[in-house]
Amino acid sequence: MISRISTGLRLLLVGLTSGLLACAGDDTISATASVPELLAHAERRLQDGDLNSATASYRRALQKDSTSSTAMLGLGRVYEVRGRLDMADRYRRRAFQLDYRRGTEARALGDLPMARKAFAAASHSLPGHPLASLQIGETWLEESAGDSAIAYLEATVLADPRLVDARIQLGKAYLLAERTD
After folding, report:
1. Integer Cα distance of 97 and 90 in angstroms
2. Does the pLDDT of residue 3 top 60, yes or no?
3. H helices within the chain, ranges in order?
């Protein structure tokens, strides 16, 4: 009699679980999903608090594109929620390094708008880091846009007053913008 009751309970639990899963909607990601699909899935899972699924999707995105700073930042956010600040910082720094390198490569090729975009992404990874804002300011100076450079160079000097190059570039930006007061 006990075995019939436990079998009945098992069947009831399986039926309830299946019903709940069917009602909840299936948010599984395809094995052939692209990186943008994986990133979108990971974001949804992170927003829903499903940290294991978010982690898995971010990791799969990195397996497909090891240079995805978006996936690295996502993993950083997951680890931050989990309280693993050491791992969160590691992934944020990796994202910063990738975007910063992209910016320096674009700048070397003379693609200043792309360089600024990459440096801005790097700055988003580590807010307040002075090197990315210094680079953005310098790209504006290369285009003789002193007014645009000033905000970034001032932020750089505030973030690290010891950066002498930032102070020199800021002086150039003030002169270019005819702000000598």
Report:
1. 11
2. no
3. 2-24, 35-48, 51-64, 69-81, 85-108, 112-125, 130-142, 146-159, 164-176
Tell me which residue of 117, 147, 111 sits closest to 132, measured CA to CA: 117
Rg over CA atoms, the chain: 24
Read off the tokens for 37: 């699909």
Instruction: Give the model's pLDDT for residue 27.
Output: 66
**Rounded Cα gap, residues 138 and 176, in angstroms:** 12
pTM of the predicted model as reported, rounded to 2 decimal places: 0.77
Q: What is the pLDDT confidence band of residue 19, given thresholds at 50, 70 and 90? A: very low
Which own/partner contact pairs does 153-161 have at CB distance under 8 Å and 24+ positions apart?
A: 155/130, 156/130, 156/131, 159/128, 159/129, 159/130, 159/133, 160/130
Q: Please give the single-letter amino acid code of residue 1.
A: M
- What's the CA gap between 11 and 27, in Å, rounded? 25
Q: Which two tokens stand for residue 34?
A: 């692209």
Instruction: Write the CA distances from 108 to 68, 73, 101, integer angstroms.
Output: 21, 26, 11
